[in-house]
Design a protein that fits this description.
This protein is α+β, with helices and mostly antiparallel strands. The chain contains five helices and five strands. The N and C termini lie far apart (80 Å).
Amino acid sequence: MSTAQISALVFGVGGFGALVAATTSNEWKVTTRASSVITATWVYQGLWMNCAGNALGSFHCRPHFTIFKVEGYIQACRGLMIAAVSLGFFGSIFALFGMKCTKVGGSDKSKAKIACLAGIVFILSGLCSMTGCSLYANKITTEFFDPLFVEQKYELGAALFIGWAGASLCIIGGVIFCFSISDNNKTPRMGYPYNGATSVMSSRTKYHGGEGDFKTTNPSKQFDKNAYV
């Protein structure tokens, strides 16, 4: 159904946009203010840089200049989020080619295969994002509730929730794409009866036959009139 596919495309593209926003955001974790004496300043970190800000509105960000000194879970989250964004991009392209309301993609059978592929790609994109955000959140919560961890503790940032929301939208869009293909296969096609082409000779014979019958009645009437003359 085209309505289901349009809804799936909206979910998938919306989830893809959320994944891009979460990947480029710097608020994956923020400093907790529960154990901090100075609450006018805070630090928040992302996958690509660390930032610090204060209540006066000034911010300063420092990117990660090296790759090898970055912690392992950050590198893993980077790879997962890049894979999620890439899969979401290709899923959006495949979805446009596989929708029944578009004129590209070939026949209905080819469009069904492309749409199913788009649904699978969207689901994989959502799973990659869900795994990356959950891995990052698990590291934050483990350090926060560890009584032996004496360094700065952080809380969950807004980017994690955006990533989870985008992953959910991608998974929902992919599932709708896959189920829309199964619904299209179950719907029977409408059949039209074929009576065959009528030849020109048969129609002419019918017409002349009727005209002959009409002419055969006329001489009898004329004969009756002549009989009384």
